[in-house]
Amino acid sequence: MAADVGGVLTPSKTTGFRLSGIYYFFRRWPVIPVFLLALVLFAGVTAPLIAPHDPNLQSLTERKQPPFWYSAKTETQIQTVVQRVLPGSAPQISLSDAQKINPAAQIGDTIEVEQVLRPGGSTKFLLGSDQLGRDILSRIIYGARISLLAAAVTLVVGGCVGVLLGLVAGWYGGLVDEAVMRFVDILLAIPLVLIALVMVATLGASLTIIVAVLTIFIWPRFARQLRGEVLQLKNMDFVSLARVAGASTPRILFVHIFPGTINTLIVVATLQVGIVILLEATLSFLGAGVPPPTATWGGMVSDGRNYLAGGFTTGSWWISTFPGIAIVLTVMSLNLFGDWLRDKLDPRLRQIE
Amino acid sequence: MVTQAATERDVVLRVNDLRTYFQTRWGTVKAVDGISFDLRRGETLGIVGESGSGKSVTMLSLMRLIPMPPGRIVSGSIMLDGEDLLQLSDGEMNRVRGSKIALIIQDPMTSLNPVFTIGNQVSEAIAIHQNIPKRSVMEQALSVLRKVNIPAAESRMRDYPHQLSGGMRQRVVGAIGISCQPQVLIADEPTTSLDVTIQAQYLALLKELQQDSNVALIFITHDFGIVAKMCDRVAVMYAGRIVEQGSVRDIFNRPSHPYTEALLASVPRMEEDVDRLYSIEGQPPTLHDLPPGCPFADRCQYVMERCREEYPTRTTISEGHDASCWRLI
Amino acid sequence: MTTANAIVPESGAPASGGNALLEAVGLKKYFPVTKGLLISKTTGHIKAVDGVSFELRPGETLGIVGESGCGKSTTAKMMLMLEDPTEGFIRFEGSEIRATDAATRREYRRSVQAVFQDPWSSLNPRMRVKDLIAEPMVINWEISRSEIQERVLKLLNDVGLSAYHANLYPHEFSGGQRQRLAIARALSLNPKVIVLDEPVSALDVSIRAQIMNLLKDLQAEYNVSYMLIAHHLATVRYMCTWVAVMYLGRIVELSPVKDLFANPSHPYTKALMSAALPSHPDTVQEEMILTGEVPSPLNPPPGCHFHTRCPFAMDHCGVDEPQVKEVGPGHTVSCHLF
Question: ipTM of the predicted structure?
Answer without folding.
Answer: 0.83
